[in-house]
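Researcher: I'm preparing a figure for a lab meeting and need a structural model of a single chain. I don't have an experimental structure, so a prediction will have to do for now. The sequence is pasted below. Please return the structure as tokens so I can convert it later.
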Amino acid sequence: MAEETVSVMMEEAVDPVELAEARAQRERFDRNSAWLQAHASEVYAKHRGKCICVAGEELFVADTAREAIARAKAAHPDDIGRFVHYIPKEKVPRIYAH
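Model: Understood. Here is the structure written out token by token.
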């Protein structure tokens, strides 16, 4: 097997417009994340085995991530801080490592 060379390039963002957009996206994400944290026990208990998307500090539930995102986008098209998450069917201890 031939050895592949992988190169990584990092650039520092300095464009004020790009930085402002990134800050706005992060602020919206943080608000949506805080909403989920505040409602987590209720959301997780009620929607096991479903995909959720949080946008506009509102919950959208569906069987697939694509469908949950579509519902969130329809209701909050300008929310660039939305996120999607799958809630496992069973509440069991999980170990995340690699």
